[in-house]
Design brief:
Layout (H helix, E strand, L loop, with lengths): L11 E5 L5 E6 L2 H13 L8 H8 E7 L2 E9 L2 E10 L2 E2 L2 E2 L2 E9 L2 H13 L2 H8 L2
Antiparallel strand pairs: 1-2, 1-3, 3-4, 4-5, 5-8, 6-7
């Protein structure tokens, strides 16, 4: 069984700067996550000065811990890249060899994205992995 998150644990969010370095933004409640999503959609432009600016302006994510996160890339209002990743600890003979699972999807609306983020907040890791695989 994957580790589950209790409702008391916080989920943090991150963004990218113009050098494409991760910027940790701190804990955010679910309604705050929805505001972040709204802000990224509101900030979409038809043209960016550089690829780095485009990525920094459209990519962000949420994480439960260092081993479980979602990453979002808002390419347009109807084309959203969504990735879920979780690292599952496992022991093989005498070695700890984590199993990394990634699920990637293309979402078609802000509402679809908010539903995936809401589930990330509400579900434990096992349940979310099944949800993200649908």
């Amino acid at each position: 069984m994957l580790a589950s998150i209790s409702m008391n644990n916080s989920i943090s969010w991150y963004s990218l700067d113009n050098n494409l370095a991760i910027v940790e933004r701190g804990a955010v409640p679910k309604d705050g996550a929805f505001r972040i999503i709204d802000d990224y959609f509101a900030g979409l432009k038809s043209h960016y000065e550089s690829g780095e600016e485009a990525i920094a302006s459209t990519v962000f994510g949420f994480q439960k811990n260092q081993s479980e996160f979602i990453e979002i890339g808002v390419d347009s209002v109807t084309d959203i890249a969504f990735k879920y990743e979780v690292s599952i600890p496992r022991k093989i003979v005498f070695f700890n060899m984590p199993r990394i699972i990634q699920k990637e999807r293309r979402l078609r609306s802000k509402e679809d994205l908010k539903a995936m983020v809401s589930a990330f907040y509400d579900l434990d890791s096992d349940s979310y992995l099944a949800h993200a695989s649908v």
